Amino acid sequence: MASAPRRRIAAPALIAASLIVAVPALAQATQAIAAAPTPPPSENDLRKRLNALNTEAERLTERYNKTRVDLGKAEKTEADATKRATDLERQAAPARDQLGRMAAASYMSGGPDMMFATGATEGMSDSAYLAKNQSAVVARLQAQIDQANAARRDAATRTAQVRQAATQTENARKAAKSKVGEVTRQLDKLTTTTTKDPKSGYKATIKGSGLPAKMTRKALTKLGSPYVWAAAGPNSFDCSGLVVWAYAQAGKSGLPHYTGDLYELGSKVDKGDLRSGDLVYFGGDLHHMGVYLSNGLYLHAPQTGDVVKISKMSERSDYAGANRIE
After folding, report:
1. How far apart are CA 198 and CA 310, in angstroms?
2. Do 194 and 205 touch, CB atoms closer than 8 A?
3. What confidence tens digit (pLDDT) does each residue in 3-52 have?
4. What is the pTM of this model?
């Protein structure tokens, strides 16, 4: 019986001791979980986000385009109202001047105040009658001027509102495009590859995740394949045949096996804006072409007796242009 109290006393002590050990351990575990780095988004996640951002950017662009059209209409309405008010003021000026001269003449001659002639015109002097008519003309013109000025003020208010909406939409569009650029850079970084040509020793970096970059990576798998005139793979190629084959492997089949026709596709690209996957052409008759890689390097199937390889664009003096097929 004497041992029972000792057990009852020991139990809380053991629990307290357990808590002293467990609580810090739990806190450390919680901190470790909180401090664990968030895994980077996958390529698939980034593509989904990029698609959503591009869609939103397109919506905002069209909304901005509409506000620009609305702003043009509002500005024209304001300009028309301002011109109307100005024209009416100009029309009223001679009548006001004449009425002022008549009033001044009446005052100087000591006659009655014609400005306040009201009621019937019977028995009026000629000068009083003319003054009354002139006063009515001025009153009518002033009413029109007041209406025109009210319309001008309303138009100016509307213009200011539309201009503010256009500014807000443009800012939202710029923010959306900035987000598109940010995600694109993340995606490009995630999909950057480097390839070295064992024959030339040139090393090229391919950036991007779009169709041109995918095509480029397919084309690079054929480094060292022999050049054969009119061949389009899978084991030998001519210059345009390599491009046609690589695009087909990347999901875009049916491209023309002819440099002249290929050059007419897609969009033209300035030499200073070249990026991985752009097609580069040489010769005034576009008799040769290749795939731009990076840092002034391009991939091509050169000529009979040679193989698919990486070369420097600076080694050629007959650069003719470039395009991007997406």
Report:
1. 9
2. yes
3. 444 544 445 454 444 545 554 554 565 565 455 566 777 777 877 887 88
4. 0.51
Residue 309 is inside which H or E element, if any? Answer: strand 309-312
Closest CA to 99 of 65, 128, 66: 128
Integer angstrom CA distances of residue 215 from 204, 247, 280: 15, 5, 14
The token pair at 14 is 């053991």
| CB 228 within 8 Å of CB 309 | no
For 214, half-sphere exposure in the C-beta direction (CA atoms, 13 angstrom radius) is: 12
DSSP bridge partners of 227: 237
**What is the rounded CA–CA span in Å between residue 217 and residue 223?**
11
Neighbour-count burial of 243, counting CB atoms closer than 10 A to its CB (0-12 exposed, 13-18 middle, 19+ buried) = buried
- Residue located via tokens 């401090």: 35
| Closest to 171 in 3D by CA, of 83, 278, 60, 90 | 60
CA distance 260 to 250: 22
What is the C-alpha to C-alpha distance for residues 310 and 225, in angstroms, rounded to an integer? 12
What residues contact 155, with CB distance under 8 A and at least 6 apart? 74, 77, 78, 80, 81, 82
Calculated CA dihedral for residues 144, 148, 151, 152, nearest 10 degrees: -160
Tell me the pLDDT tens digit for each residue of 235-271. Answer: 999 999 999 999 999 999 999 999 999 999 999 999 9
Where would I find the beta strands (DSSP E) of 159-238? 193-196, 203-206
- How far is Cα 197 from Cα 301, in angstroms, rounded to an integer? 13
Q: Cα-flanking dihedrals φ and ψ of residue 231, to 5°?
A: -85, 140
Structure tokens at 214: 């995918």
Give the tokens for residue 112.
């009655």
**Range 298-306 average pLDDT:** 95
Helix, strand, coil shares of the chain, percent, nearest 5, are 60, 10, 25
Determine the Cα–Cα distance for residues 320 and 285; give it in Å rounded to an integer: 9
CA angle 196, 202, 206 (to 5 degrees): 60
